[in-house]
Amino acid sequence: MKSLVALDLSCTHISSLPPSLPCLMNLHTLCLDSCTSLTDISMLGKLTALQLLSLSGSKIEKLPEEIGKLSNLKLLDLSHTYNLKTVPPNVISSLSRLEELNMKHSFYGWEVEGYGSGSNASFAELTSLECLTVLYVQVGNTRCLSKVIPFSSNNLAKFCISVDSSYHESSSPTYMYLKNLSIPVANWIKMLLMKTAELSLIGCDRIKNLVILDVCGVKGLKSLHVEDCSEMEYLINIMEEAGVPQSTFNSLEKLQLKNMENLKQICLCHGPLPNGIFGNLKVLRVQKCHRLDEILSHPLLKGLKILEELKVDQCHKLKFLFYSKELQE
């Protein structure tokens, strides 16, 4: 059995790990998915050859410090571990070769330096993992959105990051769900935005338009959802903000605006829009934006070359879908 490299005990009713498990010194893969009776996994720290460890669906309440000894670990799956409330400091950051971390619907109590009791890992531990290419995680502490946090995870190719107490799924390979984002925006956010294909901005009360967030020029952004941003009057205000990127939303295919109580226009521009803005937009959905009296201004309407779906719901002051003298003539 010493030559065993893979062991799958998923969906078994084991309540403790076999005492002989540390003898499997060549074990590379261990799956303990949905072992709901298993709570103590500290013994796993002796399996130093492990490269893949999956605990998805288990009921562990604390990630033991011994896990930090798994220096060869490349993949750690803690998804759907709803009972996980404690991740001690320096455990995650010790996994220096980790390439994939899956914490969907799991622990979200990451601390931010200067805030918290110090009993849990800091969010900076995640951003320090230089080999990380895949990350699925939720972060309950919104202070990380504006905090200066060193970011070494430059190799991220797939990620789903929810800054909220709930995890939000997406079919997009790169997705960010940011709640209560404010100015200034942390550099780690800006760096990941450059790789983001789908973005949700929720409850960004102090942001009046998106140009100041530097998200307009994100070349790969395909889908944008903006909701409950009570101070936002315009999605883009070309009249006030200098240096609007030429590439502003030129890859965007889907735009959803919901419950934007002070939104006056999607785009404020008295002249023609720069070439390409919203040029690839196919879906536009607007809901509960009660100050809007017109959905598509003439400059915006001219830019929507391939719009396929327009849905407007509960916009009580709406007078026109679009109003343009040029179109009437």
Automatic annotation (TrEMBL):
Superkingdom: Eukaryota
Record domain Disease resistance protein At4g27190-like leucine-rich repeats: where: 197-315
Pfam family name, one: LRR_RPS2
Keyword Zinc: no
InterPro entries assigned to the protein according to its UniProt record, in alphabetical order: At4g27190-like_LRR, Leu-rich_rpt_typical-subtyp, LRR_dom_sf, LRR_R13L4/SHOC2-like, Plant_NBS-LRR
Alphabetically ordered keywords of this record: Leucine-rich repeat, Repeat
Protein's UniProt keywords contain Transcription: no
Start and end residues of each Disease resistance R13L4/SHOC-2-like LRR domain: 12-147
PANTHER family referenced in this protein's UniProt entry, alphabetically: NB-ARC DOMAIN-CONTAINING PROTEIN-RELATED (PTHR33463), RPP4C3 (PTHR33463:SF198)
Protein name stated in the entry: Disease resistance protein RPS2-like
UniProt gene name: LOC109114226
